[in-house]
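As a warm-up, study this chain.
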Amino acid sequence: MTEVATARRSRITPEREAELYGAVLDLLREVGYDALTMDAVAARTRSSKATLYRQWGGKPELVAKAIRHNKPGNIGDVDTGTLRGDLHALTSREDDCAMQQNAALMRGLFMAVHANPDLLQAFKELLIEPEMAEFDRVVQRAVDRGEVHADCPALAYVVHMLVGAFATRTLIDDQPPTQAFLTSYIDAVVLPALGAPVN
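Now compare it with the structure written out below.
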């Protein structure tokens, strides 16, 4: 990154950045990804469109970074001493209301990803790959502690199981995901699949 680009990026304070990301998420909930425009973000946040493009490059990057910013802390920093404790702690970082809002938001974005290769690329680079790397740290600690065998076939599917439970809760049960549902799912499905202690 050039010195000029670095200087440009540093003009936005963390507080202002958080405000912009919040506005992006609000607009996504209101109109969806396809109808969201940089003009609308600029108007909502009293910013210039040129500033938005200079800072984020375009809508896909801005949306992916707004989603990432909305996540409560780094997954890899959670370390309770057991895999069960870690997974339960990750589940409890958002209350049921926030979880419901985020589930609705993510359903809309999953649809948009299929029609927008640029959004898919931004999601992979800025959201999915960093979060998978952090989550791998949590799971690797469980392997290192001897809670899970390194050759357990279910290790490759832990994220799939968790995301699947979160994403299909509404589809199958017509109810939003909740902390109680996810913690019971972890104990009934994820930990047994890994051969990890349930208590």
